[in-house]
Amino acid sequence: MIAIDSMMVCLDLSEIDEKLVAFTRSICQRLPVKKVYFVHNIKANELSEDFQKVFGDVDLGSEIEGNIADIVAEQFAHAADYEILVSEEPNTEVILADIVKRYEVKLTLLGKRTSDKSTGALGTKLLRILPCSVLVLPEKANFETARVLTPIDFSDASVHALRLSKSLVDQLNLNLEIMHVYKLPTQYFPLISEEKAVRKAEEVVKAKFTDLQKRHREIQGVPYSLIRAAGKSIAERICLQLQNGKHDLLVLGLKGNNPIPSLSLGSVPTELYNMDIDIPIWLVYSEAVIK
């Protein structure tokens, strides 16, 4: 059973905040959540001199906290125990990572605007530095979830994401699909038959699925798709599968094997995050990786 002891919701005082708070309420209504932290960091060093001159005597932190409190009162309606945290630090990523550690946050919710409105630079940094799983909510996403897609590469991280997905769909009565994207060594064509190479590659992957189902019997019977990359990146193939299958949630495992945090996210999650995908993306670390 999936239960979240503590959850952090990152607000930036933009139009997406109301949607984030409402989505948090939706999560709390579906899953057991003990405590929610609504957080915002004021980068005081980025405030202009004109602002300081005109509003220098204003307690900006209190004003922002009051604004967030109004949104929470309207959109959250005490769906769970919560606290509002407003800080004034020069580095937002560091203070948010500190909150995750201090309050033992298990899941962070991030909003994401479309690429024509935001570069997504802060979000990418947070994905790399936050020591917890992250749920990304695009501004055009809806709250209805019926179909979940979990791509796997048979690594421990992807198997963890798959098992979490299975627990989630069982708990909420959803549908789950597994996919694997494989690539062929095209540099050897036409020295070897392409048809034979495809057949052999799929035999190998099917054998891996069979072994996975033997080790994790809870995923037996879950439908899966074998997709050839065929000139596209893995992330592009995942995106196409999302569109064709009309999925509502994407769950990806994060490895975190590299001791350098900035290199632990992986190219596929990074590429998917930077795409304009209109469904939530749940990027999950295992407890072992976080520790």
UniProtKB/TrEMBL annotation:
Q: Which domain of life is it from?
A: Bacteria
Domain (UspA) spans: 147-270
* Xref: Gene3D superfamilies: HUPs
Q: Which CDD domains match?
A: USP-like (cd00293)
Q: Which InterPro entries match?
A: Rossmann-like_a/b/a_fold, UspA
Question: What's this protein's name?
Answer: Universal stress protein
